[in-house]
Specification:
The complex is a heterodimer. Chain A is an alpha+beta fold. Chain A is built from 6 helices and 4 strands, in the order ααβααβββαα. By secondary structure, chain B is an alpha/beta fold. The N and C termini of chain B lie far apart (65 Å). Classes of the chains: A alpha+beta, B alpha/beta. The interface between A and B is large, with 39 and 36 residues.
Amino acid sequence: MKSLADITAIRDKMKNLIDTRESDEDTIRIVVGMATCGIAAGARPVLSEITAEIARRELHNVIVTQTGCIGICQYEPVVEVLVPGHEKVTYVNVTTDKVGRIISEHVIGGKPVAEFTYGRVAR
Amino acid sequence: MYRSHVMICAGTGCASSGSAKVAEAFAEAIANQGLSDEVNIVKTGCFGLCALGPIVIIHPEGTFYSMVKVDDVPEIVSEHLLKGRPVTRLLYDETVKEDEIAGLHETPFYKKQMRLALRNCGRINPELIDEYIAFDGYQALGKVLTEMTPEETVQLITDSGLRGRGGAGFPTGLKWKFARGYDADQKYVICNADEGDPGAFMDRSVLEGDPHVIIEAMAIAGYATDASKGFIYVRAEYPIAIKRLNIAIEQAKAYGLLGDNIFGSDFSFDITIKLGAGAFVCGEETALMASIEGGRGEPRPRPPFPAERGLFGKPTTINNVETLANVPQIILNGADWFRSIGTEKSKGTKVFALGGKIHNTGLVEVPMGTTLREVVDEIGGGVPGGKKFKAAQTGGPSGGCIPIDLFDVKIDYESLAEAGSMMGSGGLIVMDEDNCMVDIAKFFLGFTVEESCGKCTACRIGTKRLYEVLDKITEGKGEPEDLDILDELCEYISKNSLCQLGMTAPNPVMSTLKFFREEYIAHVVDKVCPAGVCKGLLSYSIIADKCKKCGLCTKVCPADAITGVLGKEPFVINKDACIKCGACVEACKFGAIVRK
């Protein structure tokens, strides 16, 4: 026998599913460069790690998508984080080790990890 | 967590164009790319654009792929799902803009739609109760059982202005109130899923795409009317719907959402599926109940109405599928929310199955008050092939044809009735200049002749006579007096039949006689079929000047009705031998053969 609270708990557990199917203007988007250059530089495990980290932290309202080559192939893997209402932040030379901080400090904390960004690394 | 969801339509429309194979191909290709842990394949209900199936939508981008073939799948997986590059050539062309891919809701097909009854169709996997729950499923049942009295529940539905979507438009709240008003040791709730109009598949799509909404709504109706048992009367010819309903009922039972003491309350409710053999008359509520009881599917006089003496003689509430599909949202969002949609007397939305001579055949849901023009021209994409729109038929064999002059009629119960048609259950068949209205009327009469249960003489024999007169007219043997006979018969049948089947059977004839009388006159007086459909009134001839004397027409003529001398004399059609098959017209490369 289930109570209404049990049903609501199932609903909340499934929230991620809705985020992915019904993204809106409040949704945070994490975009991974998955062109040939990105994949060659190791974007594939980075993409998997981002997905896994979001699942581990049970984050809502975040979606992960991919994009093609944005022209800075030597800095791949490139990951862009788009928080609605804020400037796009571009992370370069991303490895699976860097994913944790990007998620915790930027996606959750709202403060970009400056040292991983294109502006800092490419200087 | 899955970062991407591949939504593949598994409704009847897309299943018949091969979506099951496409889904298998996706599973294989996704496994090959090592994406199985990241990408979720979801078999859903109908997206609505059945003409373009199989349809695949990929989230989170919401990319809409149409007419996907098995061979296309590896490319979609390696390009889109792995590298993030949509496969442009397979996109629904309305979403392809110069430098970006437009969202689905910006396309003409979806822009003016409002999906309430269909809200979960294409959005969830109908075979997983958790996905229904994710989108607020069973919250409404929880709310009524824990926070509301049955009286409050009835009042809320009454206040919302919800009316029956099966066609007649009776206020749903009132129906519930009547059933509630009778005391009995046992009461029933029936979901009428005996969708029988030719070309209508709204209810099937709801059952296939969102079966739990029906279960939840029936339980709410049960609570509101003190009924503990429900029946879903569904046609045996809807196998996918039946399968998913069975799965849904099992899952709901496992979660304690059907059965005893639901949500810890005193309320218990159970549902049984009853299969119908496909008789049109069983959509009529008294015939439907007779069929569930094991008797012949024949209507009986009302009153007593089912609310007083229904199934097995007990108070019974019968609601249509689409009506029920609106109930949980009304409970959750309130009566005022629902009242804010639609027109003064018709609240909410209506689902239509678009068919016939229209670009986007499929399923659409629009707010009441949307005009027929918007549905046909904007959402439906108009008539294909540059042909001229002639009429739209709503309400199936019980409805009527609405001519182009009334194209701006608002879609609501009253306006459609004023226009000589009816809302009906939602079939909307579009006709163009190539459709003969007498032939259309004959088609629908042919259906009612077959489906008449035979109980009432007026219906059993009257529709047969009506059909014979129409047949005579289309054969070219009609006389002007026949039109008077039609008028008289129509009135007689509708006044002397017991149930809606007979009462409304003459509607297709009456409305075409009213709006297209000149076409009938052309048939009986001038002996021509203006649309060129009725074979008996057609004649084929060869224009001597245009004939190149090649003899190709004689080769294709199955009746040896064409004679001439190869290269010397123009060919001629012997009208007595001609069987009017039209093969010569198609064979002639010089347009020398005309059909009039």
